[in-house]
Amino acid sequence: MTTTTDQPYATGRTRASIERALADAGKRIDALEASDLAMLEDFHSLGRLATAALIDLAQVGPADRVLDAGCGIGGTARLIAAERGARVTAVDLTPEYCEVATWLNDAVGLGDAIEVRTADVTQLPFDAASFDVVVSQHVQMNIADKRRLYAEARRVLAPGGRLALWDVTASSGGSLHLPVPWATSPEQSHLVTPERLAELLRETGFATAHWNDLTEPAETAMRQLFADGQPPLGLHVFVPDFPAKAANLVRNLAEDRTRLIQAVLTADAASLA
Ligand SMILES: C[S@@+](CC[C@H](N)C(=O)[O-])C[C@H]1O[C@@H](n2cnc3c(N)ncnc32)[C@H](O)[C@@H]1O
Q1: Which atom of ligand 1 is the closest one to the Cα of 42?
Q2: Residues with Cβ < 8 Å from 130, sequence gap 6 or more?
Q3: Distance from the CA of 93 to the center of ligand 1, in angstroms?
Q4: Ligand 1 atom index nearest CA of 41
Q5: Ligand 1 mean position to 165 CA, how many Å?
Q6: Which residue ranges make up each domain of the chain?
Q7: Which ligand 1 atom sits nearest the alpha carbon of residue 94?
Q8: β-sheet with 206-213: strand ranges across
Q9: Relative to the CA of 166, which ligand 1 atom is closest?
């Protein structure tokens, strides 16, 4: 099992750092709107752009029961609840992030649409076939036992349900430049190649509906984004050493040390998972 101490996320200051940044940006916490959080709440490559593209591709709609597996501070869950009208369950291993996700959900009026639980995505506390969509963005890089991760996603999905992924993989250009947003040391990062990722997904009962390698366009877009410096409300507010991590993220992509995969898979009705 993965533990929070294996990972670079908890700081003990996440909520206080966000509160201070919001106040400095002139935002009132008691009158917060979802759009106030835009650049701050999506902890993955290309931020909100990637989330919007992924939920479009997975055709998430109001009738879907959605699980956000590894929700971070909850940006993906909030976008799905606010813009798709779906009920979302959001789980994360880092209790501090779950507390912040719950606080922000309530602050923007989405507390009733999203349930947040501290849980390990390789050991989900849900019955089989509880969800129609599982979304997971930039989480598997921290997880060594990917077979268990995807077997759990398959178990909790109803037959025909969708698994929507936005993930970093290994590539042939050599070892990672560290730190990166998901790891400050090599033992925190568990990357496999896109081919191995696809194989693991097939073996755990998924059929591929969409598989897009977006490395080049994402690298170009992030390079432009970061060239303008950090926006006042960006991930640097609560992620330690974020500018260096972001620079290495882009450098690893440019040097073909990593790749970025967007994918939607369907839970194969024939598989026993
Ligand atoms: C880079 S952040 C991405 C957060 C969120 N998906 C997003 O895109 O904003 C990775 C997240 O994965 C969570 N995580 C890592 N391993 C996990 C596990 N085994 N179970 C649940 N969450 C996990 C971390 O706590 C962290 O919040």
Answers
A1: 9
A2: 65, 67, 156, 158
A3: 7
A4: 9
A5: 13
A6: 14-267
A7: 25
A8: 114-118, 87-92, 65-69, 131-137, 157-170, 258-267, 206-213
A9: 8
Q: Which of 91, 93, 122 to mutate to test the pocket of ligand 1 (most atoms within 8 A of CB)?
A: 93
At 121, is the secondary structure helix, strand, or coil? Answer: coil
b/e map 33-55, b = 16+ CB within 10 Å: ebebbbbbbbbbbbbbebbeebb
Please tell me the total number of residues recorded for the chain in this structure.
273
Pocket of ligand 1, beta carbon within 6 A: 2, 7, 9, 42-44, 70-72, 75-76, 91-94, 97, 120-122, 137-139, 142-143, 181-182
The DSSP secondary-structure symbol of 8 reads S
Predicted confidence (pLDDT) per residue in 169-208, tens digit: 999 999 999 999 999 999 999 999 999 999 999 999 999 9
Report how far residue 36's alpha carbon sits from residue 12's, in angstroms, rounded to the nearest whole number.
23
pLDDT at 229: 78
Contacts of 5 (CB under 8 A, 6+ apart): none
Query: How does pLDDT run across 216-266, given as a tens digit for each residue?
Result: 999 999 999 888 777 889 999 999 999 999 999 999 999 999 999 999 999
Superfamily (CATH) of domain 14-267: Vaccinia Virus protein VP39 (3.40.50.150)
Neighbours of 227 (CB within 10 A): 8
170: CA distance to ligand 1 center in Å?
Answer: 18
What integer pLDDT is reported at residue 273 of this predicted model?
Answer: 40
